[in-house]
Amino acid sequence: MSIAILAHELFPDAAKTGIGVLRYGDYDVEAVLDRENAGGRVSEFVPDVQDAPIVAGMDDVGEVDALLIGISPIGGAFEESWREDVRTALERGCDVISGLHYFLEDDEEFAALAAENDCELWDVRKPHDDLSVSQGIANEVDAEVILTVGTDCSVGKMTVSMELARTAREAGHDAIVIPTGQTGIMIEGWGNPIDRVVSDFTAGAVEEMILEKGDEHDYLFVEGQGSIVHPAYSGVTCGILHGAMPDSLVLCHKAGKERINAYESVPVPPMETCVDLYEGLAEPVHPARVYAGALNTYGMDDEEARAAVEAFEAELGAPATDPVRFDAAEILEAVL
């Protein structure tokens, strides 16, 4: 499928959905929409993903099958300045893929245009209707379950899950990713959007996916969400931890990060505290240890990144790496 990615004024630093799709998605990306960087190319900003031209809007995009909204502001709201591009895409007969909490299918204008032009509106964050509470049986599957957890949101949990699963497959293991967020679902084509699920059903929604895939594969890499110390997203994090009942954990952190995203009054705890929190919270339901760490060193040169990884590894007391910059194999062995 050929797509354009909408990332107005937030590419690349705040376009983690778009970057994730560019790096791991099975799409032919024809263009990225970003008014501020129009005229450039993706490779000028992010050299290790699929390249594409950056344009000002849908009017500058050639023939594509779909427009994918590659950014998601806090709260997942729809920005009205995007409306013209979405409208143009639908008028041209393009499907629209969205990971927002704002459902496009509930927008009267978009729904009418989609029906008129035989387009699909895929609201990725809309869970199915048959979810229920957890039975507490995810640990009964044959697969080993590995969960990425974080010191904060937006530190790379989805990316680490993808890198570990890909590296495991390259090493001959039968491994898949269990997608729990909009980006992972867009990449893998299936999953449950855990941050949109009714709180009573959060653990059950994760367990459902573990039970569906756990006897078909040897290793399940569960995409983590949020952080157990995040004032807004800790409930999602806890639900995934208890629903997945993982055998091992990978702690993800961003180099130099000292404060929780959008909550400057809340410090990121020491790594030892984070490890204790995750292992202690897992213990009563299903014991799991932090066997490795993954450090996001985006924006550093290689020498700075290597030094940061070494410091992180020492603080964590477990093997660590930046699996995008270096090699996920450095921590995969510890995890498996």
Description:
With 336 residues, the chain is α/β, with parallel strands linked by helices. The chain folds into 2 domains: 2-123, NAD(P)-binding Rossmann-like Domain (Rossmann fold, 3-Layer(aba) Sandwich), CATH 3.40.50; 138-335, P-loop containing nucleotide triphosphate hydrolases (Rossmann fold). Helix content is 31%, strand content 19%. The strands form 3 sheets. It has a 6-stranded parallel beta sheet with strand order 3-2-1-4-5-6, with helices on both faces. A 6-stranded parallel beta sheet has the order 8-9-7-10-13-14, with helices on both faces. α1 (16-24) links the parallel β1 and β2 (28-33). The radius of gyration is 20 Å and the shape is globular.
Relevant terms:
336 residues, alpha/beta, Rossmann fold, 2 domains, six-stranded parallel sheet, 14 strands
